[in-house]
Amino acid sequence: RMLARVMRVAPSMAAVMLLGETGTGKELVARAIHEGSARAARPFVAVDCSGLTETLFESELFGYEKGAFTGATHRKQGLIEAASGGPLFLDEIGALPLTLQVKLLRLLETGTFRRVGGVEVLAADFRLISATHHDLEAMVKAETFRHDLYFRINTFPIHTPSLRERASDLTLLAQSLLSRVAAGRALHLSSEASLLLAEMPFAGNIRELRNLLERASLLADGNEIEPRHILDLDVEAEASPATQTANSSGTWLTLKENEHRYLRWALAAHQGDRPTLARRLGVSERTLFRKLGNL
């Protein structure tokens, strides 16, 4: 559904708003929109709006004239000019302060701008694509985001799904990421590792999955990634918790902490498959992997 909306809006010049959690690949979607447009040969210019000050916002977007401020020893082209008919991708637009929202709104409504320190009015030629993980509707109601700017940039909203919403893609995504983070090693996930990934919440989405797989690839000596590599467990270093009733400081652990410790040890020490481990622990496979997903 997301890709269908991408292909529908790509040939137009409509402003696109990408909405989704952090790590869902919004910039990749923005690039896909650009590549499907008639202006695919034009530059793709990305701007991270988080943390931009008013001075930096204006000088980066609009550029500046020589002598506009201390240190401006030459004229600098802004990102709007650099876009040159291509898309201007404003990432995390929800983090833009109200003072800067006014400047952006004026740019969009007039289609013109002036370099900092300049008097010449220049025409802007770009396609706007915005992205945020914030709830902009709630921000509009709270008056922390301008309603007029919201309606200007929200012509065609696209939801980028979280990893939890596309669980069926997990194995394919993991294999694709492994081929990048460990090129030339022919790494693959064991069936138990694949099932463990399917139970994980992935609050950081694709970014978190990539980091996890990169770490696991460094821990794996062979060509197969096992659950212990994903959980970063050392079988030899971790003694059986059956003989441990307290941690190294002598403080008693809660039942949940003991269960988590035991599950980590059991997963790392077990050499068989998931059903066998579940039987050894006296629980169902579903219960086992639900518990593993909470580690």
Number of strand segments = 11
Strand order of the largest sheet: 2-5-8-1-9
Please give the largest β-sheet: 5 strands, parallel
Shape: elongated
What structural category arises from helix and sheet content?
Answer: alpha/beta
Distance between the termini: 33 Å
Give the SSE string: HEHEHEEHEHEEEHHEHEHHEHHHH
DSSP helical segment count: 14
Given as residue ranges, the uncertain stretches (5+ residues, pLDDT < 50) are: 235-239
Whole-number average pLDDT?
Answer: 88
Amount of helix? 40-55%
Q: What percent strand?
A: 5-15%
Instruction: Return Rg in Å.
Output: 25 Å
Keywords:
two-stranded antiparallel ribbon; 5-stranded parallel β-sheet; alpha/beta; 295 residues; 44% helix; 14 helices
Describe this structure in words.
The protein is α/β, with parallel strands linked by helices. It has helices spanning 2-9, 26-35, 54-62, 79-83, 98-110, 136-141, 147-153, 170-181, 191-198, 205-219, 227-230, 255-269, 274-281, 285-293, and strands at residues 16-19, 45-48, 63-64, 76-77, 87-91, 112-113, 122-123, 127-132, 156-159, 188-189, 224-225. The two termini are 33 Å apart.
Layout of helices and strands, plus pairs?
Elements: H1 2-9, E1 16-19, H2 26-35, E2 45-48, H3 54-62, E3 63-64, E4 76-77, H4 79-83, E5 87-91, H5 98-110, E6 112-113, E7 122-123, E8 127-132, H6 136-141, H7 147-153, E9 156-159, H8 170-181, E10 188-189, H9 191-198, H10 205-219, E11 224-225, H11 227-230, H12 255-269, H13 274-281, H14 285-293
Parallel strand pairs: 1-8, 1-9, 2-5, 5-8, 10-11
Antiparallel strand pairs: 3-4, 6-7
Helix pairs in contact: 8-10
